[in-house]
Write a structure and sequence with these properties.
This protein has 207 residues and is of the alpha/beta class. The chain contains nine helices and five strands; from the N terminus they run βααβααβααβαβαα. The longest helix is centred in the C-terminal third of the chain and has 21 residues, at 136-156.
């Protein structure tokens, strides 16, 4: 049985259990788990270690415990929105240059410890909602910088990269917010289905 690890912030966390790995929250990791367990019974063990509120520096701080020690065969990372949001709300964000530097350190350390682990990098996204519209220009510009940084990291380390902003923008043409996210950040059921679909497509290319 191969292990799949999901990493990220609240978008990934989504209420997952802290005392067991069998409850993966109610977001896209749970949707992915349902699909894989149905189509490939007994082939994959899925772990969700997303932590609500995490920035790239917080994820890097737990690289040993929540990534390396778990030794996954596959893993994905979706991080970056809090690095912007925390600056807006708390003046405790992570600027774009530091974000990229720490992300590079994170991936380098993972690859050195787990050279056979296949990694998917998912770009952060943001939509205009109740939590983001007041500072929309800042949110949209800064999240785009984090997405470009994530893309550069994926290219540097030859990892699978998944764009998300363009997909959310495409869906917004079909139905406006709040539909895909609750407030511009956290996905609704439809938004999580979108992320799950993107993840599964990427996984099919690397598995």
């Amino acid at each position: 049985m191969k292990t799949i690890l999901f990493q990220g912030d609240s978008i990934t966390d989504c209420g997952r259990a802290r005392d067991r790995d069998t409850f993966r929250g109610v977001g896209y990791p749970a949707l992915v788990t349902a699909k894989l367990n149905y189509e490939y019974p007994g082939e994959y063990h899925v772990i969700n270690r997303g932590v609500s509120g995490n920035r790239i520096v917080d994820l890097y701080a737990r690289v040993k415990k929540d990534i390396i020690n778990l030794a996954p065969d596959y893993m994905s990372i979706l991080i970056g929105l809090n690095d912007v949001w925390h600056e807006v709300n708390e003046k405790n964000g992570v600027d774009a240059e530091k974000f990229e530097k720490i992300y590079d350190m994170l991936i380098t350390e993972i690859k050195e410890a787990l050279p056979d682990t296949k990694i998917i990098i998912m770009a952060p996204y943001v939509t205009k909602g109740s939590a983001t519209e007041a500072a929309w220009d800042y949110f949209s510009g800064e999240v785009a910088k984090r997405a470009k940084a994530a893309e550069r990291i994926a290219k540097k380390h030859n990892l699978k990269f998944v764009t998300t902003q363009d997909k959310f923008d495409e869906m917004l043409e079909k139905h406006p917010e709040p539909y895909w996210t609750q407030e511009g950040v956290h996905p609704t059921e439809a938004g999580h289905a979108l992320l799950a679909g993107l993840w599964l497509s990427a996984f099919e290319e690397i598995k």
